[in-house]
Amino acid sequence: MKQSMTIIPTLRELPSDAEIKSHQLLLRAGFIKQIASGVYTYLPLAKRTLDHIERIIREEMERAGAAELLMPALQPAELWQDSGRWYTYGDELMRMHDRHDRSFALGPTHEEVITSIVNDAVPSYKRLPITLYQIQTKFRDEKRPRFGLLRGREFVMKDAYSFHTSSESLDDTYQKMYQAYINIFNRCGLDFRAVLADSGAIGGKDTQEFMVLSEIGEDTIAYSDSSSYAANIEMAEINQEYVKPDAPPKDLEKVETPDQKTIAEVSEFLQVSASDVIKSLVLLVDEEPVMVLVRGDHEANEVKVKNALDAKAVEFADEEKTKELLNCSFGSIGPVNLPDNVKIIADQAVEYMINAVCGANEDGFHYKNVVPGRDFQVETYADLRFIQEGDPSPDGKGTIKFARGIEVGHIFKLGTTYSEAMSAKYLDENGKAHPYIMGCYGIGVSRTLAAIAEQFNDENGLIWPANIAPYDIHLIPVNMKNEDQKNLAEKLYSSLQEHQYDVLFDDRNERPGVKFNDSDLIGLPVRVTVGKKAAEGIVEVKIRKTGEMIEAKAEELNGVLERIFKELE
Q1: Ordered strands of the 278-285 beta sheet
Q2: CATH number for domain 471-568, candidates 3.40.462.10, 2.40.10.220, 3.40.50.2000, 3.40.50.800
Q3: Which mean pLDDT values do the consecutive 10-residue runs of the chain (569 residues) have?
Q4: For 144, phi and psi rounded to 5 degrees?
Q5: Does the structural domain 253-382 have CATH classification 3.90.960.10?
């Protein structure tokens, strides 16, 4: 492609609203252009890069036995109502009405649609298992779009769905998809980890996320310093033995704590450790109030609360709701003398506390010498807290460390979550109906593009892996007005294309500095410069990744490039 015939609007200045490297560079290098908050145009360079990522995905999906289809982005509300998610998915679901006042959603995902399709098209066990996938634009009304392509309201996603007659069959496909994802992200050149995860709004059990390691990642990965264990911090289990202090219980005592609200303030005021304070939080679990207790030096994990109570929706109660329930403000909440309609669940560490401190449900007051089981009753003890760095690894090997990650893929064992809700069934060999057993497997394609840009760059611009780059070679004649340079460049352009290279030919009448700066910014694997030695048939080859420069005769260029690209594989 001649550069004069495409659009690559490079920028010299750093975009003021771009916070992270990938966002800055994709804008500056002319890959994307923002149309609205969280909505981007993929300009020609980005489209070609997406095509290469999608090619890798398609090859690995086919190898795993998945067939491609394309489902509508516009989905009727009835399907979401059948699954129950029309009411529980939340504000991220973009809803609308047509001219006949029928309700629709712009699809953030396609579990409902694919379940409906397979229920109609695959009624018999004889056609199972089957795996179907698509690559399509999705829509989510993000409250705060940020980080460019990493968190937008419109994005490209690969979503696959498998249907089975047994858990063993699902396990087999799940493992095939797991390996396919490993292959995909390895082929994209990414530094990533597969981690245990929560299924979130998708539903189901047994899930893993694929996280690209990055300091700007919005997710925290908990990993062992001595084994391969890794999990999203929301899902990392606690493997720790607690010991009850060897001290006699004291009488409950109510004390005044004026203006002391936080754990740190109360601990300092009463001269106790944070680990001796009970942190009390009110959550709305499926709209019913629940008090969750954790130790003062721990943080409550709402995902674990949701899973422990097998709930559909969990959120922290605001201060207004808290006052309505307990007649006190945040900072004074506690489990003693609660109203009957508020049940208590507690983290397992709380069971081993004695003579603790907690709020008195009265502003400016706390209780001392609190003993769980004597002063209040707990309905359930469970693992309800976030793991911390330095905690024992859940697999018993080493201790936990943290890293940041960008989620680019997620695989789920859905079971019968959707098939039962939507009465989707197949007939077995005896003619008996059973709900399909399902799996779900997603990759954020545009997110993957951004994650690659986040990992592959330097101070001069992007550095695309060879099999992902929008073009293989950036061919740059220094001066298009020089006949020797122009003629040699045109000859090389034709020759390189004949040898199956994708070439971006900078035929612009720009200054050399502009061309070279743009070339580094765009980040193609190899730059071929036709300059002052053009009359001698000599060109300069630069490898973007290493900065290495090689002089080569035009007739030997293909051999030089073959060696370079073999090393870049």
Answers
A1: 314-316, 278-285, 288-295, 343-347, 380-382
A2: 3.40.50.800
A3: 97 88 97 96 98 98 98 97 93 96 97 97 97 97 93 97 98 97 97 81 70 92 92 92 92 96 96 97 94 97 92 90 92 94 96 97 96 96 97 95 95 95 97 97 98 97 97 97 96 96 96 97 98 96 97 95 94
A4: -140, 85
A5: yes
